[in-house]
User: Fold this.
Amino acid sequence: MRRGFVTVGTWCLDRNITVDAWPSEDMLARVLEVDRAGGGSACNFAVDMRRLDPSMPVETQGLIGAGEAGDFLVEVADSHGIGRAGLHRTAAAQTQVTDAYLSRATGRRTHIAFFGVAPLLSPDHVDFTGTTARYMHLGLPGIHDTMDRPWQGEASGWLAVLKRARAAGLETNFEFVAGAPEAIRAIAYPCLPHLDTLVVNDYEIGAMAGRDTIAGDRTDVAAVRVAAADMLARGAMDCVVVHYTRGATLVARDGTVIEQPSVAIPDSARKGANGAGDAFAAGFFYGRHEGWALRDCLRMGHAAAAACLRSAGTYTSVEDARTCLALADGWGWRS
Assistant:
């Protein structure tokens, strides 16, 4: 019986910087708070899962640098009980660092990234031999140059890793990052037949399907449903999940469509959205791993994301699953 998760891909140092307002060029912003944390899909998902359930086996694979920033990320993994035998280190480049600026005035985020080792990550750093995990969570395309390019006859390194994971008996999910729609499609389309699940946000599903899923600053939920069905038809997934500010939409291969509102978190509790998407994915997959009904999985995803929103950091305010759900029920759910 397989149990637990293995995350593969981006580990970076996040410097979460809260400013009074995002400035125009040549102008000054006042820094209100600086918080260091691990970042990237492989790091955040792994940490969130261990915080949701400290008994859940979680391991990770990726590439970080040899210096102080890499030491910090090793401590993040160790302090959360994440198996890191596959977290490789190199002196060839520095650890990836992202400055995540949060504007107190608007609540909007701006990311400025130093990619460091990211272009060096390749399928050679990935080995599923001996893993007993059930799920493999992979990402992020668009910031790892070697993985984004063809690899030994495959369309990309990502596809090579997905095929290895499937061959090893793992169920697969692929995490994306906002980028140019044509670049997202170029990576995504060859990979869809090798995915068991796809969990993305409203922009990403629109970019994949070539549909407008955001009108102004609001999600077009009807367009999201159509885009999710489009991707389901292209891939092997048993469901596609799309999360957005006001809720989430799940479209299953059997025709089931579930729409679950998000948590009505008060503005006074909201500190930053960095990492909330990873927290949603971790919450959803925690419920799925435990055999919960699909709507309950969506509720768990929203509850984890709402808990994450209480801090500027990527995972520091995520608590155990029961506490996150109680917090969400206490705040209530959007209509």
